[in-house]
Amino acid sequence: MKLTFYGGAKAVTGANYLLEVKDSSKKDGVRRIIIDCGLTQGASFCQQCNWDPFGYDPSEVDEVFITHAHIDHSGRLPKLFKDGFKGKVYSTPPTREFAEPLLLDSQHILSMDAESHKLPLLYSPEDVYGLMDLWEGIPYHKTLKLGGSLEEPAVKVTLYSAGHILGSASILIEAEGKKILFSGDLGNDPSPLIGSSEAPDSPDYCLIESAYGDRVHEDLPNREAKLEEAVKESVAKGGVLMIPAFAMERTQILILKLKQMLEKHKLPLVPIFIDSPLAIKLTQVYNLFPQYFKPELIEKYGTLERMFKFPGLHMTMTTEDSKAINLASNPKIIIAGSGMSQGGRILHHEKRYLSDPRSTLLIFGYQVEGSLGRRLLDGVSPVRIHHEDVVVRARIKAIGAYSAHADQTQLLNWIKPIKRKLKKVWVVQGEESASKALAEKLINELGVHAEVPVTGLVVEL
Asked: 220-402 is classed in which CATH architecture?
């Protein structure tokens, strides 16, 4: 069995791993499996390295397994299809349903990037549709058998809940008498919407994410109080509360929390705008999968339509609806994409309101190095938005505990129950400093053989 790191090494984004295993049913005796095929992101939505050829022949790949639908784990799949992949793609059913609108939205942004940088299209909408024809959903805990024979398949693959976003999975692959576990992105437990992450017993090898590998989230029990405080303070000052939010999971969590604040009379009735067509489409997908939510939420609200609706909530789908937000009197709350202020409608609101000292920008998730969100979080002023310098007078606040990523303590706790047989752990999907910090903790505190890989590393298992 051979593992090659083509992305996600010393970087948060661009996860892409190739696993090659012996399979007598293949002509050359090798089955090639890709785990995640993500877009590399940083200072811009898409780095130019995404246009580079893959480090392997897409036409030789047999299967792709996707841990979850975030673009940094799925965003190069249509290019893989365009470049010759004709195998099967597998994920949980929610991940499959989320993928199409996310990839089409990504294609629209990428086409503008390509035009501005005089690059060819990375992929077309037709590539997305062709890819979706190859994509199948499999539920958690159902083992998929590949290759070999009926009596002795070459590969067994099982998905477990990663607790990160709805339908996110950790992937256990068994082949050649060995087990390797790909964590995907692990969740910040407890999640407001879904259950905890799972880890199967006794893998031999493991890849673990490390986005927050060098830090611990602020006190989780206080995160709701901090959100309430930020909302109340902004409303009291009569300003605009801007929340750059990822269209998937973060926006839905915000809707639910604001609804609960209204139910408890902790928030006056002010206009709240979901200014993201993608978030609106994805919220509709959530309605298809009640079985993936925490049971108590379904018991309380009965239907997901009720969970994500309340007086004062406006879904602004069209450009005209979005422009009309400017006419609404203050105070008001605007939740818009993108989550790192790298594009999307949030930029229009930031350009308009960041200079207003009554307004607040609430950072509600991880901000990758080089992003506008990261610069704002670091106190940079002025910032450049749409070719103009904007002086930042608004208050910048952050609530890290709502991150969908596990922190260092949670990552270590995920490894503890499975460390008994672990021969090696590779720490991936984090900035280099975060990955190294987690690797040191794994070595010194848990006695696990851990390493931070580099892109292109090939290891024999």
From this structure: 3-Layer(aba) Sandwich (3.40)
Angstrom distances, CA of residue 374 to CA of 188, 241, 259, 396: 20, 18, 28, 11
Q: Which residue has the tokens 């349903």?
A: 97
Q: What angle do CA 450, 453, 456 make, to 5 degrees?
A: 150
Q: Do 440 and 220 contact (CB within 8 A), yes or no?
A: no
110 neighbors 123 (Cβ within 8 angstroms): yes
**Pairwise CA distance, residues 215 & 268, whole Å:** 35
Query: In percent, how much of the chain has pLDDT > 90?
Result: 79
What is the 3-state composition of the chain as percent helix, strand, coil, each rounded to the nearest 5?
35, 20, 45
Q: Give the DSSP letter string of 411-459.
A: HHHHHGGGGGG-SEEEEESS-HHHHHHHHHHHHHHH---EE---TT-EE
CA quadruple 328, 397, 345, 71: dihedral sign: negative
Are 153 and 145 in contact by the 8 Å Cβ rule? The answer is yes
Rg for the chain, CA atoms, rounded: 22
Q: Is 425 left (phi over 0), alpha (psi -120 to 50) or beta?
A: beta
Mean predicted lDDT score pLDDT of the chain: 93
Rounded CA separation 421/418 (Å): 7
Going from N- to C-terminal start, the domains of the chain cover 2-215+404-460, 220-402
Residue of higher predicted confidence among 443 and 304:
443
Q: Read off the amino acid at residue 320.
A: E
Question: For 12-64, what is each residue's pLDDT tens digit?
Answer: 999 999 999 999 999 999 999 999 999 998 766 668 889 999 999 999 999 99
The two three-digit tokens of residue 151, written as one number = 């009596």
- Rounded-to-integer distance, Cα 452 and Cα 214, Å: 13
Domain 2-215+404-460 CATH superfamily: Ribonuclease Z/Hydroxyacylglutathione hydrolase-like (3.60.15.10)
Contact 451, 443 (CB under 8 A): no
Q: Hey, CA dihedral for 85, 86, 91, 97, is it positive or negative?
A: positive
Specify the pLDDT at position 43. 61
Nearest to 344 by CA among 390, 385, 394: 385
Residue 342 tokens, joined? 């790298």
